Amino acid sequence: MAGLLCDGPTGLYLSCLDPRTAAEVAQVPVQALELVGDRVQQAREAGLAWRERPLAARKQAVAALHQAFLEAGPRIVALLAEECGRPAGEAWTSEVVANHDLFQWWLSQIDDLLISLPLDLSPINYPRKTGRVQLDAVGVIGLISPWNLPVAIPLRAIVPALLAGNAVVWKPSEHSPRTAELLLELMRGCLPEGLVQVVQGDGRWGQAVIDAGVDAVFFTGSVRTGRAVNLRCAERFLPCSLELGGKDAAIVLADADLDRAVEGIAWAAFAFGGQNCAAIERCFVHASIYPSFLAKLKARVERLRPLRDVGPLITPAQLALVQEHVAEALAGGATLVCGGGAPGPGWFHEPTVLADVSPTMRLMREESFGPLLPIRSFDDLDEAIRLADETPYALTASVWTRDLDLGETIGLGLRAGVVTVNNHAFTGALPQGTWGGPGETGGGVTNSRFALYHMVRPRTVVVDALSQPHEMWWFPYNEALERLSRGLIELQREGGAKLPGLRGALSGFTARWKDL
Ligand code: NAP
User: Fold this and answer.
1) Is residue 243 annotated as a catalytic residue, yes or no?
2) Chain center to CA of 360
3) 265-279: string of b/e by CB count within 10 Å (b at 16+)?
4) Under a CB-based contact definition with an 8 Å cutoff, are residues 286 and 258 in contact?
5) Residues 407, 495: one domain?
6) Which of 16, 233, 240, 277 is catalytic?
C-alpha cells in the first residue's frame, strides 16, 4: 500500500511508494498521536493573533503565499508525478493553474464577502438602535483531505479559511504526505509560525484532529470515512462540511456533436486515471448513435498513452477493486470495447470501456474510482434520466446535445449538485462556482461564497443609544400595550379592520408612552 505507516528505528514514518513503479521513494516522519492536541493548541494560539490582524494584512500574507506557490509550480508537478503518478499536463492544469485562479478569486472577493451587514431597524419600533451582522472566524479549522487532488482540495479550504481569520490543522492523506510537506514549507515563508499545522499519519490521526478541540471540520474523502467523521463531529456539535464520492452520469442525446462528446467524455472518464470524484462513471447514449459513438470512443481511448495521458491507480487495493468491477461486468454479459488489462508498470490499469452494461452491475452502482467507463444505450430519454438519478450520489452530471436549451432543461431536472451541458467535471476548478452535492456526496459546499458557511460564525451586534428607562415591550404589560399590538396586527392582517386597527394602534401607542 502506498504511504504505509511504519515503525522504524527513529520512530514512526510513512513509506511513500511511487504508484508508477511500486518502489519506495521517500519516508516522511510521523509525530506521536498524543501530540495532535498540542498541534491544535499551537494553531489556536497563532490564530488568536492572526484574526486580530486587519484583513488587508491577512491578504498580504496570503498574496505572498500565492506568489511562492506559483514559483513552486515545477516542484509541485514533479512531486505529484512521484507521489500520485500524475501526468505533467494534468498536474499543471488541475493543481497549479487552477489554484492560481483560486488564490486570485478569493483575494479579490474576500473584502466584499466578509463585509458586515447592517440591520435595517425601524426607528419607530426600535428607536436609536443600530446593529449589524458581522462574520467572525470560527477559530481552528480541522481539515482532512484525500490524496487524489492533494494540492487543490486542501487549498480550496485553506485559502478562504485563512483569509476569514482562521487557523488550520491539516491531516493530509497518508498517500500524499510529501505534497503536504511542500505546501507547509511554502506557508512557513509567508504565514505566522504555527498558523497552519500539518499532522501526518493514517486515519487515526484524522480522528485525533476531530477529537482535539478544533472548531469546525472540513472533510473530503470516501462515504465510509465521511460517515464516521460526521458521527464524531455530531457528538461534539462540530460544524462539519463533507465532500464525498460520486458516480457521475453523462447522457448523450441523438443530436450530440459526436466528436466533442467523445473527446469530452474520454477526458472526464479517464483523467486522474478515473480517480476523480466527478469522473464520468456511467454513460447513457441514445440508441441511434450508440454504434458510432462506441466506435469513435474506442479509437480515441486506444490512443491514450499510459502515464503520459493516464496515470496509475494509487494502491494495489484500488487496482484490485477496478479489476473486480470489470470481471463481474464481463461475467454478467457486458462487452469489452477496449482496455481491460493491468500490464503495469506499478498499479497502472488500462483505460477500459465496457458496453451493454446493466444497471444492477457493481460498476454501475458503486464508485469504481478507476479508469472504467460503462456505457448503456437508451431509446427513451425519461428512462435514461431515471437511471442517471438511480444512485445515492449526486455530485455532477452532464447532458451532451446541440440543443443547448433542451440540455439545460434536462440538466436542471437531474439530481446533481453541478450540471453541465457539453462538458463535465472541470467546474471543480472554478472558485466562483459551487462544488458539492446532496445524498451520499455529503452535502458540503466547496468554492464560491457559500464555502465560507462553516468558516465564519455570523454574530449580531446591536448598540442602543436610547436613554429612557423604557421600551415599548418591557414591563409593565398593560391594556395600552395589548391595544397597540392588536391594532398593529389588524393593520398587517389580510382583510384586517384597517381603520379601527390604525385607531387602536395610535391610541395604544400614545397611552403606552404616557403610562410608562
Ligand atoms: P478516504 O480513504 O476516505 O480518506 C480521506 C481522508 O480521511 C484521508 O486523509 C484519510 O487518512 C482520512 N481518514 C481515514 N479514516 C479516518 C477516520 N476514521 N477519521 C478521520 N479521518 C480519516 O478517501 P481517499 O481514498 O483518500 O479519497 C477518495 C475518495 O474521496 C473517493 O470516494 C472520492 O470520490 C472522494 N473525493 C471527493 C471529492 C469531492 O469533492 N466530493 C474530491 C476528491 C475525492 P489516510 O489516507 O491516511 O487513511
Assistant:
1) yes
2) 29
3) bbbbbbbbbbbbbbb
4) no
5) no
6) 277
pTM: 0.96
Residue 253 lies in a domain: yes
277 flagged as catalytic: yes
Rounded Cα–Cα distance for residues 231 and 116 (Å): 33
Determine the length of the chain: 516
| Predicted confidence (pLDDT) per residue in 213-262, tens digit | 999 999 999 999 999 999 999 999 999 999 999 999 999 999 999 999 99
260 and 156 both lie in a single domain = no
C-alpha 269 – ligand 1 centre gap (Å): 20
Q: What is d(CA 244, CA 213) in angstroms, rounded to the nearest whole number?
A: 23
Residue to probe by mutation, ligand 1, list 1, 36, 84, 173, most atoms within 8 Å of CB: 173
| Residue type, position 207, single letter | Q
**What residues contact residue 317 under an 8 Å CB cut-off, 6+ apart?**
1
For residue 16, being part of any structural domain is answered with yes
Q: What DSSP string describes 455-513?
A: TEEEEEEEEE---SS--TTSSPP-HHHHHHHHHHHHHHSTT--HHHHHHHHHHHHHHHH
Please, are residues 42 and 26 in contact by the beta-carbon 8 Å criterion?
Answer: no
Residue 104 sits in the same domain as residue 178: yes
Q: CATH code at 82?
A: 3.40.605.10
